[in-house]
Amino acid sequence: MKLTFLGTGTSTGVPQIMCDCPTCRSRDDHDKRLRCSAMVTYKDKNILIDCGPDFRQQMLAQGSPMLEALLVTHSHYDHVGGVDDLRPYCAMGDGFPIYCRPDVAGDLRDRVPYCFAEAPYPGVPAFNITEITTKPFNVADLDVVPLPVMHHRLPIVGFKMGNLAYITDAKTIPDTTLELIRGIDTLVINALRLKEHHSHLSLQQALDVIAEVKPRIAYITHMSHGIGPAVEASLRLPEGVKLAYDGLVIHIPDQFDDDKL
Question: Residue 220's beta-bridge partner residues?
Fold first, then answer.
């Protein structure tokens, strides 16, 4: 299994409009961050995690790969603002599969009601929504375990797939979720900035979670310009923790290698 980071930025992206900070002025490609999204590839099938407003640009950069389904963490615009651009994938079967919480399903129907009309306008995207709970489900031969976390007061989900756990926009992570991912091989987790934030983990708070989970390797995503230039932020990271960046591809082993534990 592999994971492609399509976007590693927060809701404003990086650089941020009308900002002249060192991160936004940086010419380092690692400081150019589209809105947060990722693609899991398993048995040559691609599963999208979140579909923000940069989705079209992200897909073109990857060569317009086929997609089997979309997993949605929550319904904030930077995670679902690109769903209309899924229309090229919607011509197959009964609509493009979307897996999300019931509240997200309701928000999607409100955001793009023309996609769910009884007599839809010709050519609009067609979606087949499956509402998920905390129970595992299967997508394209891959078992997916929802990981409940809190985005301030909003319940949202991350996803565990094999030896990968993907969590974004978390502020607090309940003990039950920590137990599900403790000792996992690869952890992807959000860290908005250096300073504390009311609805996102700071870098130090994310590092504290990583220290408790003890993955083999961890990647930081959903970063704002407040994380600082990547070359400087990387110096703050302990061994086994890396900043993700747009376009990064990582491979997740199917099984743990006992010699490396």
Answer: 189, 243
Q: What is the pLDDT of residues 132-164, one digit of tens each?
A: 999 999 999 999 999 999 999 999 999 999 999
Per-residue b or e along 108-147, where b marks 16 or more CB atoms closer than 10 Å to that residue's CB: beeebeebbeeeeeeeebbbebeebeeeeeebbebebbbb
Could you identify the residue written with the tokens 């897996």?
99
CA 118 to chain centre: 32
Residue 134 and residue 146: Cα distance in Å, rounded?
5
Residue 229 CB neighbours (<10 A): 17
- In this structure, what token pair is assigned to residue 102? 């019931």
| Spatial contact of 45 and 15, defined as CB atoms under 8 Å apart | no
The Cα 230–Cα 29 span in angstroms is: 9
* Measured distance CA(26)–CA(77) in Å, rounded: 26
Residue matched to tokens 């499956």? 130
Q: What is the pLDDT of residues 86-127, one digit of tens each?
A: 999 997 778 999 999 999 999 999 999 999 998 889 889 999
Which residues are paired to 149 by β-bridges? 156
Under 8 Å between Cβ of 241 and 220: yes
Ranges in the chain, pLDDT < 70? 255-261
* DSSP string computed for 8-66: -B-TT-BSPTT--SHHHH---GGG-BPBSEEEEEETTEEEEE---TTHHHHHHHTT---
**Cα R_g (the chain), whole angstroms:** 18
Q: What is the pLDDT of residue 255?
A: 66
